[in-house]
Amino acid sequence: MRSANNPVGSPPQTQSIVALAAAVCLFLASIEYIIPKPLPFLRIGLANLPLLLALDLFPTLQFFLLLGLKILGQALIQGSLFSITFLFSLCGSLASGAVMLAARRALRGSTSLIGISILGALASNLVQLVLARYLVFGRSAWLIAPPFLLVGLISSGVLGFLAQIYRDRSTWLRKMFPDMERPAGR
Amino acid sequence: MPGSRVRIKALDYVIFFFALIIIGLISAQTYIGGGGTPEIAITGADGQWIYPLDSEATVHVPGPLGDTVVAIRDGAVEVLSSPCREKTCVKTGKVSKPGQWIACLPNKVFVAVRGRRNEQPDAISQ
Predict the structure, then answer these.
(1) Fewer Cβ atoms within 10 Å of its own Cβ: the N or the C terminal residue of chain B?
(2) Which of A43, A122, A144 is facing B121, going by the closest CB pair?
(3) Are A132 and B124 in contact (CB under 8 A)?
(4) In this complex, do A142 and B29 lie within 8 Å of one another by their Cβ atoms?
(5) pLDDT band, residue B1 (cuts 50/70/90)
(6) Averages of pLDDT over each 10 residues, chain A, 186 residues
(7) Rounded CA separation B102/A13 (Å)
(8) What is the CATH number of the domain that holds B104?
(9) Residue A131 lies in a domain
């Protein structure tokens, strides 16, 4: 993708990294989709793994580009692009992306990706619950809040743990981002 | 540091407990009333009936001694008649506030006003 016109104003390498990360999101979304779920709100959020890693490695614009591609890819996989589910996914993902990025920048180094992931899931789930409250179920939406949030807490903790392991151990990541260990990133 | 174990930092625990507290607060709010139409749960020896407080209904609740008649009207619930000896449940009169209850131990009937209507949603969108 070394085209002359450069829509996101970043070096070609970063662009192809965004595309690659988005492809991984798409792949993980399909993995998640084929895992049977006992209840519709019990989900793992696998597709957020690349986003967690991108927090430190991508500039803000590229991070949100990846976020948008993830939302779109996930909707395509789930077939929910033109349903109300898409609105939930869109708002939840945007909230979680913004919260995670803000938290990562503010708390840089003093949390692992586990804490960041938990904050992101909490933001996403709260936003979705508020949407459910006002758009779909009315007040009874809060009835599903406790299990929904609790599952989100656990799965996001596990996901953050996996992301942190990958971040610590991946030699590929180090090859692609040689200066990733430098404390003051972008 | 490749190969090293994941270090969970102090702030991770803080965030975890922060999330847990928020979930706890929402759960408490959900399960201990706070808004919504209150509902009436009538528990008999062999089943439970749930009505919104603003409904109109007369329920015959079968118990070991016979039928206890529970009436819901004008935003309150009362036991109209009971086959038990003491009639404590009838004497309790009307109750209407979440947390209030009427019980008839001999006939195993329990009437309680709860904070929220217990509609089960079909699903939540992801």
Answers:
(1) N
(2) A144
(3) yes
(4) yes
(5) very low
(6) 51 78 93 79 84 91 94 89 87 95 90 94 93 77 82 93 91 83 50
(7) 72
(8) 2.60.320.10
(9) yes
Higher pLDDT pick, B34 / A161: A161
Report pLDDT for B74. Answer: 85
- Is the pLDDT assigned to residue B99 strictly greater than 60? yes
Residue A117: closest CA among A99, A129, A130, A131: A99
**Gap from B72 CA to chain A (nearest CA, Å):** 22
User: A141 — contact with chain B (CB < 8 Å)?
Assistant: yes
CB contact under 8 A, A139 and B35: yes
Asked if A116 contacts A52 with a C-beta cutoff of 8 angstroms, the reply is: yes
B-chain residue closest to A167, CA distance: B2
Distance from CA of B99 to the nearest CA of A (A): 18
Q: Any chain B CB within 8 A of the CB of A150?
A: yes
CA separation for the pair A173, A111 (Å, rounded)? 20
Is residue A91 in some structural domain? yes
Overall domain count for chain B: 1
Cβ-based burial of B81 (10 A; exposed 0-12, middle 13-18, buried ≥19)? middle
User: Looking at the domain assignment, is residue A182 inside a domain?
Assistant: no
Q: What is the pLDDT of residue B121?
A: 54
Would residue A185 count as lying in a domain?
no
What local confidence, expressed as pLDDT, does residue A139 receive?
67
User: If you count residue pairs, one on A and one on B, with CB atoms under 8 Å apart, how many are there?
Assistant: 114
CB contact under 8 A, B126 and A146: no
What mean pLDDT do residues B53-61 have?
Answer: 87
Residues of chain B with Cβ-Cβ distance to A141 below 8 Å are 121, 124
pTM: 0.66
What local confidence, expressed as pLDDT, does residue A185 receive?
42
Is B56 part of any domain? yes
CB atoms within 10 A of CB A158: 14
